[in-house]
Every structure is written in structure tokens, then in C-alpha cells.
């Protein structure tokens, strides 16, 4: 079984196993950390998630774009926009996909957002309190 059809099939199988490299190595979610000074502030995300006291963290899709509202009694609320960008390691995984995994692997990673990271992360907020 070492004919050209076998070798072509083996090559296709190996290339297919590389599809979605960033999806496999980095995953499709990231942990967003929110800190405030002073601590103990309430955090509400525009997607509905919240926590009652900073510091806190949220597991989010890497391709998320949302607003983070940090508030505390007797303090001026602060809102921060969290977006995403291609991570250094995500870009390398995408380049590997293009070279070895082809268009399918690149499409999987682009579709899942695995090559992205949330920014800013961590979210650091300094509240103005009276």
C-alpha cells in the first residue's frame, strides 16, 4: 500500500489534521479580567454578565466586542470598550494554517476567532470617588 493514491490520501489526512491550528491550540474563549481602584466595585458587561465585587473575571468568546461598566457607590461610573485584535501567537497559527492547513484551516480559525485576543485585558479602572 505505498502507491501514489495511498500517499496522496495520507498527505490529505495530515493536512486536514492541521486545519484549525489556533482553534486547537488557543481555544475559542479568553478570560477577561476586570480590576478597579478602589476594589469592590460592581461590573456589568453589555452582554448581560455581571459580578458584584472587583477583581473579577469572565470567560468570553475571543471575538467579543462589548462594553464594561464599573460602578461603586459614591464613585463616578467608568465604562470601557473591550474589542479584539489578532494576537501574536494567533497570527503565527494563522500563518501556519495558510502554509500547511490550507484555506480550510484558515477559515476555521477566522470563523471561530481563535487567532484573536481581547483588548484591553486586563481592564484596569480607577474610579473617582467622593
Automatic annotation (TrEMBL):
Residues spanning the signal sequence: 1-22
Keyword Signal attributed: yes
Source organism, top-level taxon: Bacteria
Keywords annotated in UniProt: Signal
Protein name, per record: Translation initiation factor 2
Native organism: Pontibaca methylaminivorans
Amino acid at each position: 500500500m505505498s502507491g501514489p493514491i495511498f500517499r496522496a490520501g495520507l498527505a490529505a489526512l495530515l493536512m486536514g489534521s492541521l486545519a484549525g491550528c489556533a482553534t486547537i491550540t488557543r481555544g475559542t474563549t479568553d478570560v477577561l479580567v476586570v480590576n478597579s481602584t478602589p476594589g469592590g466595585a460592581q461590573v456589568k458587561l453589555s452582554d448581560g454578565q455581571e459580578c458584584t465585587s472587583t477583581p473579577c473575571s469572565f470567560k468570553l468568546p475571543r471575538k467579543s466586542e462589548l462594553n464594561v461598566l464599573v460602578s461603586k457607590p459614591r464613585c463616578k461610573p467608568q465604562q470601557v470598550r473591550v474589542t479584539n485584535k489578532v494576537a501574536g501567537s494567533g497570527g503565527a497559527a494563522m500563518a501556519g494554517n495558510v502554509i500547511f492547513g490550507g484555506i480550510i484551516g484558515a477559515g476555521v480559525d477566522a470563523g471561530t476567532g481563535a487567532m484573536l485576543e481581547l483588548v484591553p485585558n486586563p481592564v484596569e479602572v480607577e474610579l473617582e470617588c467622593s
